[in-house]
Write a structure and sequence with these properties.
- The complex is a heterodimer.
- By secondary structure, chain A is of the alpha/beta class.
- Chain A is built from 10 helices and 12 strands.
- Chain A has a domain of about 80 residues.
- In chain A, the strands form 2 sheets. In chain A, strands 6-7-8-3-9-10-12-11 form an 8-stranded mixed beta sheet, with helices on both faces.
- In chain A, strand 11 and strand 12 form a beta hairpin.
- In chain A, helix 5 packs parallel to helix 6.
- Chain B folds into 2 domains: about 240 residues, P-loop containing nucleotide triphosphate hydrolases (Rossmann fold, 3-Layer(aba) Sandwich); about 70 residues, no CATH class.
- Helix content of chain B is about 30%, strand content about 20%.
- The termini of chain B are far apart.
- Classes of the chains: A alpha/beta, B alpha/beta.
- Chains A and B meet through helix 5, helix 6, helix 7, helix 8 and helix 9 of A and helix 7, helix 8, helix 9, helix 10 and helix 11 of B.
- Chain A: Keywords: ATP-binding, Nucleotide-binding, Transport.
- Chain A: InterPro entries: AAA+_ATPase, ABC_transp_ATP-bind, ABC_transporter-like_ATP-bd, ABC_transporter-like_CS, Oligopep_ABC_C, P-loop_NTPase.
- Chain A: Pfam families: ABC_tran, oligo_HPY.
- Chain A: This is ATP-binding cassette domain-containing protein.
């Protein structure tokens, strides 16, 4: 296996929220959004984070790029010079230097691009902000990247409103690529797109990865996309990673009941397939008042008394396959048939 | 499986040559361009397509909900099941906000929308909004209306309905809101439920719950459903018949099994291939459809998929309007590849 590029150790994030009924000067209560997240991200791989809305996947992505400060924990980044630095502790110039290596692509291409900047300005802004380059150099690099992202170079003077959703997402990709990043965090990067366009963008992301050896952290709620893009998958539930495994192993044999239920809920485009599915009762619990013990136990079909009392640790049960479930070894869960 | 004595009966609703034109600054947009379909009693028709293909406009025109800018022509023939022998009603000929359409809208044909947050008014309680429809169409009595509303809420799986009744939409989660929306739509026992992307805003696990709910309620009430979606997975699970739309036209129409087993139109095939599905892996490259959907402004009479089509025939596909070809009794496709020899050889 290749070396770890990012080593996330015990990441926690708390938000302070005022309850609705609180008095004016009441102290805000704390909501634990991420609890003790630890994983490694290997160089050149795509690690996907999946989960339902409110599970903390977006918060995790933002904490990793220092978009919002984490409460405690470390994000150890291995630079190209093999130095190991804690990205979250860096300040000033050093942080800025590392920021070049880590870029982000957002979900909604309609709000992530400024309507007042031309496409050329949008793509070149990171370059101008970080380097002193002559105008012709900037122009050359922008054109080069735009072409790689599948944009027509003659349209660069236009403004984002003139582009369709898929084209806009290409602009966002070009903007992320221009810094030659080593890691790109894609937060639901293809969720807002139509199916036929989605396939184009997924293929583009894969091609770029091959070409530039980029590492992706791919945040998504859609398991069928995740399976088509990632090397490893981490399943999140209520601020915790409940299962982390190589994609094939995860889909062939999920070990956490939540993963099984998620897979079974994906509608299959085949009218003759077996439509019997596991339907979870209820909804994701409120993270402000998480259930006791295993957070998943109120919705779990296999729960026992132990699950209500004891919170399971994330532990490795097979090579690279970690699960947070007391009964991971005993349960025989249903995966997805491979073609 | 249900038996099919209904097949010979008249369809509940038939749409003929529906056209919706919108005057834009830079020309006329043929948003919906000659759409024909029928909805059978107790069955589900799926309308699939990408954004901008006209599927929402089509579904909204069934209850005259389109904005004034839309110039609508054609006919939408609705045959209420209780009007034996009667010819039925042409919905398009009704006054857009007249009494006649208002007695159908929400009563006999009702609709659930994609975004339940914007579909509910934030100023009134959920109970109040569900009761409104009941009091207009079913009973004037407030107490009785509340009883019906509470029943509906519990039917769609909302527990603690007494408390929920007095809550506002923002106190509900997305899935709950969609359930409340369904209970509102079904509160007057409609014959046809139009569901416009009913689960797009929801998580997969909640989506599975809502789809399951719709299916069981359909069995209970025996209503027909027009399901508008972009997700072929949902279509495969829910529908009896499918119509694939592209740029204002239905390009292929067939029973669901036939369509998935034997897709004919290059667009349908492309859609099916480009859909990431469980069972694939990272090594597998998704096939995509090149280009993007063009604007339907001042379209010349030719195949609208021509630019993106892999199997296009120059001089044929871009020369004239494409006729509808029957592949089998209930499978039709709008493509020159399958038209009769005289159409394929010399245009």
């Amino acid at each position: 296996m290749t070396k770890a590029m990012l080593d996330v150790v015990g990441l926690n994030k708390e938000f302070q929220v005022k309850p609705k009924s609180a008095k004016l000067f009441a102290k805000p209560t704390k909501v634990q959004v991420l609890s003790d997240i630890s994983f490694e991200l290997y160089e050149g791989e795509t690690l996907s984070i999946v989960g339902e809305s409110g599970c903390g996947k977006t918060t995790l992505g933002r904490c990793l790029v220092k978009g919002i400060p984490a409460t405690t924990g470390q994000v150890i980044y291995r630079t190209e010079e093999e130095e190991r630095v804690d990205f979250l502790k860096l300040k000033g110039k050093e942080a800025k230097r590392l920021r070049r290596d880590i870029q982000m692509i957002f979900q909604d291409p309609y709000s992530s691009l400024s309507p007042r900047m031309s496409v050329f300005d949008i793509i070149s802004e990171p370059l101008v902000a970080n380097f002193k380059l002559s105008r012709s150099e900037v122009e050359e690099r922008v054109k080069d990247i735009a072409e790689k992202a599948g944009l027509n170079a003659s349209y660069l003077r236009r403004y984002p409103h003139a582009f369709s959703g898929g084209q806009r997402q290409r602009i966002a990709i070009a903007r992320a690529l221009i810094m030659k990043p080593r890691l790109i965090v894609c937060d639901e990067a293809v969720s807002a797109l139509d199916v036929s366009i989605q396939a184009q963008i997924i293929n583009l992301l894969k091609d770029l990865q091959e070409q530039f050896k980029i590492t992706y952290l791919f945040i998504s709620h859609d398991l069928s996309i995740v399976q088509n893009i990632s090397d490893r998958v981490a399943v999140m539930h209520l601020g915790r990673i409940v299962e982390l495994a190589p994609t094939k192993a995860l889909f062939a044999g999920p070990k956490h009941p939540y993963t099984e239920a998620l897979m079974s809920a994906v509608p299959q485009p085949d009218p003759e397939a077996d439509h019997s599915r596991i339907i979870l009762d209820g909804e994701v619990p409120n993270p402000a008042h998480p259930p006791s013990g295993c957070h998943f136990h109120p919705r779990c079909a296999y729960r026992t008394e132990k699950c209500e009392l004891q919170s399971p640790e994330l532990r490795e049960i097979a090579d690279g396959h970690s699960v947070a479930c007391h009964y991971a070894e005993q349960l025989n869960l249903r995966g997805v048939r491979h073609d | 499986m249900t038996t099919q004595p209904l097949a010979t009966e008249q369809p509940l609703l038939s749409v003929r040559n529906l056209k919706i034109r919108i005057q834009m600054d830079n020309g006329v947009m043929n948003a919906v361009d000659g759409v024909d379909f029928e909805i059978q009693k107790g069955k589900t028709l799926g309308l699939v397509g990408e954004s901008g293909c006209g599927k929402s406009l089509t579904s909204r025109s069934l209850i005259s909900l389109n904005p004034k800018e839309c110039e609508t022509s054609g006919s939408i023939h609705y045959r209420p099941s209780d009007s034996e022998g009667e010819k039925g009603i042409d919905i398009l000929s009704l006054e857009p906000n007249g009494k006649a359409i208002r007695s159908i809208r929400g009563r006999r044909i009702s609709m659930i929308f994609q975004e339940p947050m914007t579909a509910f008014s934030p100023m009134y309680t959920i109970g109040n909004q569900i009761m409104e429809a009941i009091r207009i169409h079913r009973t004037k009595d407030k107490k009785e209306a509340k009883q019906i509303a509470l029943q509906m809420l519990s039917k769609v799986g909302i527990s603690d309905e007494e408390k929920r009744f007095d809550q506002y939409p923002h106190e509900f989660s997305g899935g709950m809101r969609q359930r409340a929306m369904i209970s509102m739509a079904l509160s007057c026992n409609p014959e046809l439920l139009i569901a416009d992307e009913p689960t797009t805003a929801l998580d997969v696990t909640i989506q599975a719950q809502v789809l399951e709910l719709m299916r069981s309620l359909q069995q209970e009430f025996g209503m027909s459903i027009l399901l508008v979606t972009h997700d072929l997975g949902i279509i495969a699970q829910m529908c009896d018949e499918v119509a694939v739309m592209y740029l204002g036209k239905i390009v292929e129409q067939a029973p669901v099994k036939e369509l998935f087993r034997n897709p004919k139109h290059p667009y349908t095939k492309g859609l099916m291939r480009s859909m990431p599905r469980l069972g694939g892996g990272k090594e597998k490259r998704l096939e995509s459809i090149e280009g993007s959907v063009p604007m339907a402004i001042d379209m010349p009479p030719m195949c609208s998929f021509y630019e993106r089509c892999k199997d296009r025939i120059e001089g044929v596909c871009n020369a004239s309007a494409v006729p509808i070809t029957s592949i089998s009794e209930d499978h039709t496709v709008r493509c020159f590849l399958y038209s009769e020899p005289e159409g394929g050889e010399s245009p």
